[in-house]
Amino acid sequence: MSETQIPLAGVIGNPIAHSRSPKLHKHWLATYGLKGDYVPLHVHEEDLETVLRTMHKMGFVGANVTIPHKVAALHIADQVSDRATLIGAANTLIFRKDGKIIADNTDGYGFIANLRQNAPGWDAAAGPALVFGAGGAARAVIVSLIEQGTTEIILTNRTRPKSEALRDEFGTRIHVVDWVQAGNHIDEAATVINTTSLGMVGQPEFRVPLDGLRPGTVVTDLVYAPLRTHLLQVAEDAGCVTVDGLGMLLHQGVPGFERWFGTRPEVNEATRAAVLA
Ligand code: ATR
Question: What is the DSSP letter of 219?
């Protein structure tokens, strides 16, 4: 990149208008006084490869990828990180000057960093984790929990075969339970994680019986709209340590921003406020 060129990054998705990533990265660029810009890019599936192969020519040093491109981006990339391979999807790309595309996945990192920041003392190995959902977000959560030393993951999903497929892939630390039975396992869990879309604005409510929640259990919801989901509210009332999903979004942006713009950004109250504004 020549001295006169402004380093660009962006988020690629379809739809993309609702993405909070531009607010996040623009806030960090302004906070650290860095040269650069970050834009939302609406790209159709059939154009993804052409777009990705052209971006370095337009001054893009990297991009985030979101729905529905996370799996396709992984396959287009020339080099893929181990964690992205394990998760089976990419959310962060680096465009090298020679045109090579490097893919990473920072969702699991963001998930763990959010818990570490907002549930101080949280220890993955302290006891079983109960995971609701077996979609793309659940894969990132499961990979990172295993990496952090969680010895048992109780996994439940409305569509049971998807949980079983994850167990077959990631091993015997995963114990699959029926969706309708999940409430009976809550008291066994040291950490409870909702990775489904239940409870999100416009989606059905998270209706699992939660009477088994014990004080001190760490409960986190990947849903961040609303910030205070029904699950987190009930958990708080039960004396649990609750962690909302916005922090995961903020933290997953850190490694990409650092690679693209050269400064490792901090996630703090100002970051949250900027993204919620
Ligand atoms: P993401 O990338 O956010 O994980 P996804 O891969 O589409 O998105 O996964 C969505 C998750 O939410 C799945 O676990 C899905 O359950 P199914 O596998 O049974 O579809 C879960 N989910 C979505 N709507 C749900 C509902 N009404 N009841 C229960 N689970 C639901």
Answer: E
